[in-house]
Amino acid sequence: MQRYFVKNKENNKFILEQSDIHHIKNVMRMNDKDKIEVVYEEKLYICEINNVKDNLEVTLLEEKIDNNELPIEITIAFSLVKEEKVDLILQKCTELGISKFIPLEVSRCVVKIDKKKEMKKIDRWNNICKEASEQSKRNKVPEITEIKRLKDIINLDYDLKILCSVNQSVINIKKVLQNNTKCDKIIIVIGPEGGISIEEENYLISNNFIPTSLGNRVLRTETAPIYVSSIINYEYME
């Protein structure tokens, strides 16, 4: 059953976005009386669609008990990379249950985003996360913040702060997670191609980020978030 996220509700009818109405009519080619799943305020409802050829209506039939979210809140702070790589990070990490994304501008970023174009980019990224959340049957769409710098994230409130380092002599991520089993909120910083600079790494370490190895192999910057998200799923999946 196709799932859609909605933001508005009137009595027992949900108000779909125009893009979702287009999807129902022209992509899925649904008919009157067809059923869909609707997520509203992180709750799941089974609904019926009617009046498809005119002013499409979505009527609530029943609420379902369903929660496919991880039991902890995970934030991925990823360095800005080329567009297709960001798309991959957002899509796959959303499927793997990540709660929040923070795009980071660091010294070795090869991509710079003009402030005038930032909100347009974030809107596009939000749409990628929404579609990935619907596909993977999640109950929430991850949040994407505005583009930040390292100084903006050092004082954020997290139980565990991890820095993915290319230094293989530091503790590996498996041991870090095993040593911190009672965490509700985790943030993971991932650098761009070539990793973050030594100065930036030392700056994060001095602000309570734990430098962490992802193993002996050097991963691409778009692979690392997916790898980390998979490990966290294994460790914390209920």
Can you give a write-up of this model?
By secondary structure, the chain is an alpha/beta fold. The protein folds into two domains: 3-64, Beta Barrel (Ribosomal Protein L25, Chain P), CATH 2.40.240; 73-236, 3-Layer(aba) Sandwich (Alpha/beta knot). It is built from seven helices and twelve strands. The strands form two sheets. The protein has a six-stranded mixed beta sheet with strand order 1-4-5-6-3-2. α2 (83-95) runs parallel beside α3 (115-135).
Helix-strand blueprint:
Layout: E1 3-6, E2 8-10, E3 13-15, H1 18-27, E4 35-40, E5 43-50, E6 57-64, E7 73-79, H2 83-95, E8 100-104, H3 115-135, E9 143-144, H4 150-153, E10 160-164, H5 173-178, E11 185-190, H6 198-205, E12 210-212, H7 223-236
Parallel strand pairs: 1-4, 7-8, 7-11, 8-9, 10-11, 10-12
Antiparallel strand pairs: 2-3, 3-6, 4-5, 5-6
CATH top level of the largest domain is: Alpha Beta
Name of the CATH architecture of the largest domain: 3-Layer(aba) Sandwich
Q: Beta fraction of the residues?
A: 25-35%
Mean pLDDT, as a whole number?
A: 93
Q: Uncertain spans, ≥5 residues at pLDDT below 50?
A: none
Radius of gyration (CA) equals 20 Å
Strand order of the largest sheet: 1-4-5-6-3-2
Number of domains: 2
Please describe the biggest sheet, giving its number of strands, its sense, and whether it closes into a barrel.
6 strands, mixed
Please report the total strand number as a whole number.
12
- CATH superfamily membership of the largest domain, which one? SPOUT methyltransferase, trefoil knot domain
Report the principal-axis shape.
elongated
Share of helix, binned: 25-40%
CATH topology of the largest domain: Alpha/beta knot
Enumerate how many helices there are, as a single number. Answer: 7
Alpha-carbon distance between the two ends: 24 Å
Decide which structural class fits the backbone.
alpha/beta
